[in-house]
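Comment thread on ticket #2218

A.B. wrote:
> Attaching the input chain for the structure job we discussed in standup.
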Amino acid sequence: MRALRWTVLPTVVFLLCAGLAPTRPNVKLHLSAVRVVTVDGHVKELPVGKTVLKKGDVVKYVIVATNVGTQPALALTPVAHVPAAMVYVAGSARDDGAVAQFTLDGKTWSAKPMVAVKTAHGIVKKPADPALYRSVRWVLEHPLPAHKTMAFSYEVRVK
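C.D. wrote:
> Ran it. Output below, let me know if you need it in another format.
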């Protein structure tokens, strides 16, 4: 059984479009991670710390975006990558009023990515296996107001 030593958090980036006003949004991002375990039938979240992760372990990432600026962040789009030794856990993306989208190639995004599959009747499109997702992003439905916070999360499982 392969063990994964926890050393870094996945890369988190964000895109931010601001107006031309002299005062701007100033969004601070905080990324944290916890192990999700079941103890005595109850789901618990434990600090990752220097934990040695093993195959099948689940890690929940939480991104907290805080607009410490004086103007709304008009198009905040947090993007988080699925670490190479892990796979996305289907249905785990959570948000505070945003739409989760995924990418298989780092270029195209969709709430439900599709793949082309060759069959005896030709090529057909079908939903991609969430294990193929390489990144998740959240597209906010409304601007992030000044001095407000939003949280986004997703889970991954060690391969």
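A.B. wrote:
> Thanks. Noting for the ticket: The CA atoms of residues 25 and 138 lie 18 Å apart.
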